[in-house]
Amino acid sequence: MTQDLLKVDGLKAYYQMDYFGVTREVRAVDDITMTIRKNEVYGIAGESSSGKTSFIKVLAAAIRPPMRIVAGTVKYDFKNGPIDVATASEAQIEGIRWRHLSYIMQGSMSVLNPVRRIGKTFEDFAKRPLGLSGEAYRARILNHLERLKLPADVLRAYPHELSGGMRQRVTIGLATVCHPEFVIADEPTTALDVVVQKEVLGLIREIQQDMGSSVVFVTHDMSVHANMADRVGIIYAGRLVEEGPTRQMFFAPKHPYTAHLVASLPRIGDTTQRPALEGRPPSLANPPAGCRFHPRCPLAIDKCKTEVPPLETVGPDHRTACWRWRDVEPLVKPQAMQGVIA
Amino acid sequence: MSNLLEVSNVSKRFTMGGLFGRKTVDAVDDASLTLSAETPEIFTIIGESGSGKTTLARMILGLELPSSGEISFRGKTVSHRVGRQERLEFMANVQPVFQNPFEAFNPLKRIDRYLESTARRFLKLSQRDDLDGAMDGSLQKVGLSLAEVKGRYPHEMSGGQLQRAAIARALIPNPPLLVADEPVSMVDASLRMSIVNLLKSLRDDLGVSVIYITHDLATAYYISNRLIIMQRGRIVEMGDARTVLDNPEHPYSRLLKASVLSTEDAGDGKLATDPGMVTLAGELVGRPGRLVDRADGRMVRVYG
Ligand SMILES: Nc1ncnc2c1ncn2[C@@H]1O[C@H](COP(=O)(O)OP(=O)(O)OP(=O)(O)O)[C@@H](O)[C@H]1O
Ligand SMILES: Nc1ncnc2c1ncn2[C@@H]1O[C@H](COP(=O)(O)OP(=O)(O)OP(=O)(O)O)[C@@H](O)[C@H]1O
Ligand code: SF4
Ligand SMILES: [Mg+2]
Ligand SMILES: [Mg+2]
């Protein structure tokens, strides 16, 4: 039986800023409802500046002004009790951080404190939540490093003395050392070469399976989603526009934006010009009415300009927000099937 | 034929204290490459994390001095300390776009101020209208506008917006050479293609040469004329981009290509790499070998 670990309901989180007395509001997360199950890997993709980082910051309870939660709930069902991080106090959040909920930020390689040795950073993060000291603490850390294929010496190193790949494994180590139930990662492998990337992803998968935890990660690299995620969700202009089982999302997408996204990257050996999306990314301060994708959508009809399409169920675990989902043609086909169809 | 850029037998050694006692790292070891002044090209550097790509780029930008070897730009040596005026001239000609936009911008400085200081410094502009025109022109080239950027701080922009702003800044002095260190790693697939196409049109329409550093073999294949593949400080393969990527010869180049994740079997979670290939490539680390020419025009490092 699958059990939900996180339920997000009607979440709205806006940035509110004052410019010379005029209030400017960026609706970065605008009415998102979704659930994440125990023991699943959920990948989030979407346009640059569509609100992915903002959304997972809310999930990670890392909300800072000028961001403000305007509506909705973000309820976790952790082993130490349920919590709604949208309304929880600092103290309550302290009680779940690292042990139950951990967050690897975008650009996290630069987040490691440059003047602090790695060992000290581990102490800052893990000593209190683990509730261990002396030999027991040390053994636990060393054991974890070994699993990440990091030598014990890294504890004495400063971040700049490590290669990019090592630094990234260190941040993954920090985020997983307390065996959290829920791990959130923003672009965890973007800066790595493809050999190390594959190794690091394999590691995240392995740790996730060992601990039985849930992982939510954001990346622009669709091939990472293809190989890591159980389900994929697509965010466009602050909204979840489609989510479904990974294979469906790639080969039978039901939203025109998803169809575009999964088809937009060339493969090695391919030099055909890929069509870029027409038009400008929507403004989150003043988003288009109706379906937010309508100014750029090849399938748009009049209804799309005024009426917001609801996120409706179109298959097992598969939801999309498009009036014309029945007409969406996949732009790529699985290779195995290509021969059969042709 | 004259050269735009000539990198001759350049090495960089760093000394580090701390980690494993005092030791040295040969970040770049005996690298040579030449870009022609007549034919603009996109010259790509791919390779291992930590193989010296950024260090090589920083030396080309004059931000780091080589430990040995020489770098010249339009026939003038730049790899030693030069006067202020000469340096400014050189910097206007060779513009950087860095790897991590979050690090490239000072968090306390507004983005438009950052662009403005580049326009003042290199274009010697001072009138409000001229400055705004230069900034807006560059921003438009990358799909932004001055109106969108004005008054905003780096933390108020997404990763993708920030990276586009960084490219716009680099374009302000109309440089003949752009050094772009992973310029598309933080942007979405569609934008990635539009930035890559932008680099292409900078080459084809404006005659700008680009040194393009990336981990993305697919875009490297798509836009590069030539490329080098680096492993632990050394160039292990160099040649026509398509020739090399269609059929990589060096064991590390082969491992790289084999490790590219595919979307073809989406949902099946294939994350294993052939351990034999990893071992083969790993054994070559630290062995000097030598680069030899092949009949198809490429150079490959061979051993023994
Ligand atoms: N601290 C902030 N203050 C004001 N606006 C912000 C802030 N952080 C983000 N924004 C704005 O919110 C919107 C969403 O940004 P967010 O970083 O969530 O996008 P993203 O989907 O993660 O993009 P990317 O893929 O480029 O990282 C953008 O328009 C951005 O400019
Ligand atoms: N200032 C420095 N002091 C000491 N070592 C350094 C310094 N800068 C770089 N190095 C080392 O030099 C080597 C090459 O680093 P470089 O940043 O050039 O690699 P890279 O190929 O750009 O890697 P990535 O793909 O991760 O960006 C690494 O081992 C790195 O740790
Ligand atoms: S609702 Fe209309 S505009 Fe929106 S994605 Fe569907 S067809 Fe396009
Ligand atoms: Mg982001
Ligand atoms: Mg680098």
> In whole angstroms, how far apart are the ends of chain A?
40 Å
Globally, the shape of chain B reads globular
Helix content of chain A: 25-40%
How does CATH name the architecture of chain B? 3-Layer(aba) Sandwich
CATH class label of chain B:
Alpha Beta
Q: Percent of residues of chain B in beta strands?
A: 25-35%
List unreliable stretches of 5+ residues of chain A: 335-342
Instruction: Please report the two chains with the greatest interface, counting residues with C-beta closer than 8 angstroms to the partner's C-beta.
Output: A-B, 72 and 62 residues
Helix content of chain B: 25-40%
In short:
The complex is a heterodimer of chains A (342) and B (304). Chain A is an alpha/beta fold and 342 residues long.
Topology:
The complex is a heterodimer of chains A (342) and B (304).
Chain A: E1 4-19, E2 22-37, E3 41-46, H1 52-59, E4 67-78, E5 81-84, H2 90-94, E6 101-104, H3 118-130, H4 134-147, H5 164-176, E7 182-186, H6 194-211, E8 214-218, H7 222-228, E9 231-236, E10 239-245, H8 246-251, H9 256-263, H10 302-306, E11 312-315, E12 318-320, H11 335-341
Parallel strand pairs in A: 3-8, 3-9, 6-7, 7-8
Antiparallel strand pairs in A: 1-2, 1-4, 4-5, 9-10, 10-12, 11-12
Helix pairs in contact in A: 5-6
Chain B: E1 3-16, E2 23-36, E3 42-47, H1 53-60, E4 68-73, E5 76-77, H2 84-93, E6 94-97, H3 101-104, H4 111-123, H5 128-141, H6 146-149, H7 159-171, E7 177-181, H8 189-206, E8 209-213, H9 217-223, E9 226-231, E10 234-240, H10 241-246, H11 251-259, H12 275-283, E11 290-293, E12 299-302
Parallel strand pairs in B: 3-8, 3-9, 6-7, 7-8
Antiparallel strand pairs in B: 1-2, 1-4, 4-5, 9-10, 10-12, 11-12
The structure holds adenosine-5'-triphosphate (2 copies), iron/sulfur cluster (SF4) and magnesium ion (2 copies).
